[in-house]
Amino acid sequence: MKVNRPPHFALAATLIVVLATQFTALAALTPSASLSLARTNGSVTSLSISNAGDQVWIVQGSSNFTSWTEVEILKVFNGSYHCRYTNGTENYFYRTFYDATRQTIISATTNALVLPATNFNYASPSLPATFLVNPILAEDNMTSINTNSDAGALLGRVLFYDRRLSTNQSISCASCHQQAHGFSDPRQFSTGFDGSLGTRNSMGLSNARWYQRKKFFWDERAATLEEQTLMPIQNSVEMGMTLAALTNRLAAEPFYTNLFAQAFGSPDVSTNRISRALAQFVRSIVSTQSKYDLGATNGFANFTSQENLGRLIFFGQTGSPPANCSLCHLTDNFVQTTIIDNNGLEFPYVDKGIGGISGVAAELGKFKVPSLRNIELTAPYMHDGRFTNLEQVVEFYNSGVVSNGNLSLPLRGQGGAPLRLNLTADKKAALVAFLKTLTDTNLAADVKLSDPFNYGN
Ligand code: HEC
Ligand code: HEC
Q1: Which atom of ligand 1 is nearest to the CA of 279?
Q2: What are phi and psi of 254, to 5 degrees?
């Protein structure tokens, strides 16, 4: 519950409201004299403040409203602060307020971030044996120019979740690449810093490290991941920032100079370092603990019979004609290896895809074939987010592929016409069940990939 209060709103009045209505939290939103009050409900309570700016907030606790004990002082970028406190006593109250005389607190790592005493292992994740040999070895787009280090990826994680990267400090990379959604966006089109909509569906980032063509975006317009990571920051719809303003803004935060020093050996904040750290974090989003991964080691004995039927359909081992999904979604990363494809979504091409960038006619309507890892979590689907669920995707491949000159061969049947799979309802359900075996619930909850900020966003 959030309520706007004028400046100098009296504590007593707030107290009456709280007791009368059992609100768990009230937030007064003016920086000059803000007051938030929260009362323990059982033993847990939550406070929240919203106020644009980059201010210091003081949190205090009391059981009698007479003596207040300081709980913590936080520098809250963008004034967005949601925090849960626990206290054994019933009726323990918390308040936060803004004190103009105490705004000089520095944003040290300890008050800005929740980081473990010993850093996580980002540099050498344990990988299945199949990732260490071809064909997957050849898919790895990490190069000697930017090899992952634990400190570099940690800095990347902090940057990834930091709203300072957008001009008005309103969104971070994670706003459009949400961990619970396989680092994708559940909205068809993401909203940028000023509320404008983009024109494509956000991409899931699971195992982005493994893409042999090494290019990024649906239309592959970024030649490397290092090049890609600076593009949303400067995009006028997405984050609207200039790189000069960004380096200045980050250099002003002591905790950043600290993290840059740990990652790169000196505290200097530079565009090149920002791009490399972000790329290191994206390459740390490694998913190898799905039901499918276990199955790959035990002959799929852990699969239900429905999932195994779906697996045979996906790999073209049953069905007439065979579905051959695995001709384009290859390897244990379920990603295309060396070519680009058109899967017959539409004609004429509303979005010209890779051809729109290269100008090559044979590439019109062709797109990067993304990994299907964690596909269950990354709805909606396709470059324009046209399908809201996997049932719709499967029905599209079953009966909806649209004829066009650039339609890729695996989706062509007799005489080059679009393939019709004629799957029964049971087989369609089996294919969906198989796609869901690619879900890695550990990844969606892994703390080392989660929001490190101390603001409980
Ligand atoms: C406003 C939403 C938004 C923000 C903010 C955003 N992205 Fe994205 N991201 C997208 C969309 C949409 C796409 C697909 C765009 C396209 O292909 O044209 C995408 C694509 C990507 C890709 C390509 C994945 C692939 O497999 O090719 C990467 C990597 C990525 N984003 C990383 C980031 C990083 C790092 C940041 C922060 C610096 C960021 N994004 C900020 C929406 C966003
Ligand atoms: C000819 C190559 C090809 C074949 C065969 C193919 N796909 Fe795809 N797939 C693509 C391309 C290309 C895209 C991205 C298309 C776009 O967004 O424009 C895609 C996208 C997808 C997506 C959405 C990915 C996302 O992140 O939004 C799913 C799910 C999918 N395919 C599943 C399948 C299944 C299941 C089959 C078999 C029935 C299959 N595909 C067969 C090329 C193929």
Answers
A1: 35
A2: -55, -35
